Amino acid sequence: MVERVYRLPDTIKQEDYSNMVDTSREVIRCLENLGYPHAPAVDVWLVPLLREKLDIATAFAWDQSVDENKIPSVEEFLNFLQKWARSARPAAPKTQRNQAAPTPSTSRPTSQTCPECSTSHYLTQYPTFLKTTIEERSAIQKRLHLCANCLQPNKTTALCSSSTCRKCMRKHHTMLHRDSPTNVSACPFQ
Distance from CA of residue 99 to its chain's centroid? Predict the structure, then answer.
């Protein structure tokens, strides 16, 4: 039965998160019925295993929502996914180009209108943006005059209070991080 969690697809689409939540909860329930109580040790391996199956935008939103000084529980992760899955439902029709339908918020308090396609989501959730290379993302960021740290309009990277890159801890968005062996200039947004 635990193998059902391992058999989940490597990358799960946002509209399939409900299935991931149901499968995970069912496996936990079955284990408890067999006399294996849910222990905090399960959180240590199951949450990272499930997180690796998320698309990059959802994984980033999850990372932003958790306290780095605490191991998140499986239940916290599954509750987050349920809320995120609800935001995948089609938005209500818009009457004006820049008027966005409300969706559940992530940890960012700014507007949810995508600067690239003008629909109701963050740029980091835009499928076309997610499929681009880091160089192409950087070009989009510059073309749209977005903050390199939070990918939001009308901000200056130096003054942005959003968190730093999760890979190198420098002041640029993780989706703009460039890997380079021993080359400090690999992160151009210092």
Answer: 23
Whether the per-residue pLDDT at 119 is higher than 80: the answer is yes
Contact 138, 123 (CB under 8 A): no
Mean pLDDT confidence for 17-34: 82
* Radius of gyration (C-alpha) of the chain in whole angstroms: 18
From residue 172, give the alpha-carbon distance in Å to each of 12, 13, 50, 106, 161: 26, 26, 26, 19, 11
163 vs 29: CA distance, rounded Å: 36
CA distances 108 to 29, 61, 121, 147, 158, Å, are 34, 9, 12, 14, 18
Distance CA 105, CA 90 (A): 15
Threshold 0.90, pTM exceeds: no
The lowest-confidence range among 11-25, 41-55, 86-100, 162-176 is 86-100
DSSP for 119-167 reads SBS-GGG-HHHHTS-HHHHHHHHHHTTB-TTT--BS--GGG--S---TT
| DSSP summary character for residue 176 | G
Mean pLDDT of the chain: 74
DSSP string across 15-60: GGHHHHHHHHHHHHHHHHHTT----HHHHHHHHHHHHTTB-HHHHH
